[in-house]
Amino acid sequence: MIGILNIAILGFGNIGSGVAEVLERNRTKIAEALGENVAIRYILDKRDLSDTIYGDRAVRDFDVILKDPEVSVVCEMLGGTQPAFDYSMAALRAGKSVVTSNKEVVARFGDLLLAAAKENGVRYLFEASVGGGIPLLHAFDDSLRGCVISRIDGILNGTTNYILTRMHDCASGFEDALQEARRLGYAEANPSADISGADAFRKICILAAMAWGGLVSGDAACCEGISAVTQEHNAFASRCGGTVKLVATAAREEELLSLSVSPCVVMDDNPLSAASGVFNAVKIAAGDLGDVMFYGMGAGKYPTASAVISDILAAAEKKASERPRLFTAYPYPLVDPAEWRTDYCLSVRCHRDALGERLPAYCVLHEADGVLDLLCEDISKKTLLEAMAGIEVLMLMRAVV
Ligand code: HSE
């Protein structure tokens, strides 16, 4: 007779209810894949859920779940750091694997939770925390394990990508596009984390830790959101041959780690430019493998639920003693964003001749009415601005070439 894998879901919002629905819809397929039926034994929520088919499984006391030896996987979909962190830690210490979509907890406490999982012979898995439904983190554990990764560029926030796409394609206003993203269930309960870039910053910190093992925690000092993006930025990007996207980048050279989240000009021939609307894309410079890109739905109920379910299966199948994933706290200071050598597009009011020898190398992308749009590669923002002293800089954005 086929066995039963009992799980508990913490939080029955957009993602939690999506997990329950997809488990039900794909019941046969999941049972075939796992060799067991997945049963939702408890749902922890503030509501009694009597208006759903799960009313008989609703609990408000986490101890009920913790003390039930039949529950082997806890799915934490609460959002926020508390009580999500305490519940996750308690579950791991009680010998239960934890699966989460909560990037805030992973980015802040992933090192502690992974260590606790290892100590207790269980798993802490968070595929749904980055890139929504894209199967990304397991690739770091498996296919990319032997690759020397030097850089990760990602469009990691579906809400801001949706807003920027609407602003570009339909000349929509920022507020209208944000309301639409909220209606579609992409935005956070408080969308300021989306708009400010904090959500993308948490995700790039998680990806950097997956690539290099060190988890950077703390404030997103090198993080700029999209609230200042206007149609003028779109026009500038288009003259440069690209579009405006919020790009999160992690680049590593020896012990020097640069992290950045900012609106960028993504050039049209870069594959990241294909990610529009709620889609996310992550491009990884993976040494001998070369560049590899992951693409898919970066937010939304069912894509994210699919990632959670893939982790439920992984938690049930694999023993934690096989290659446990571990993060350490990242021990070095980050590279000062102004000193980071990368690529920039800028618009300056001057004649070509006035540029003279100011810049080591640049390329003129567009010229009209005394305004030059330039691409400068492999240069720090500080050096670039020093070189432009006395010239009116109308626009300056990081470029992703
Ligand atoms: N608010 C997030 C986004 C949800 O828009 O990407 C997925 O993490």
The percent range for strand residues is 25-35%
The count of β-strands is 17
Termini separation: 56 Å
CA-based gyration radius: 23 Å
Characterize the largest beta sheet: strand count, sense, and whether it forms a barrel.
Answer: 9 strands, mixed
- Uncertain segments are none
The CATH level-2 architecture of the largest domain is identified as 2-Layer Sandwich
State the fourth-level CATH superfamily of the largest domain: Dihydrodipicolinate Reductase, domain 2
Query: Which distinct ligands sit in these coordinates?
Result: L-homoserine
Number of domains: 3
How many DSSP helices?
14
Q: Can you give the mean pLDDT? A: 94
CATH class of the largest domain: Alpha Beta
Kindly report the CATH topology of the largest domain.
Dihydrodipicolinate Reductase, domain 2
Helix content: 25-40%
Bulk shape: elongated
**Structural class assignment:** alpha/beta
Strand order of the largest sheet: 12-11-7-9-10-17-14-16-15
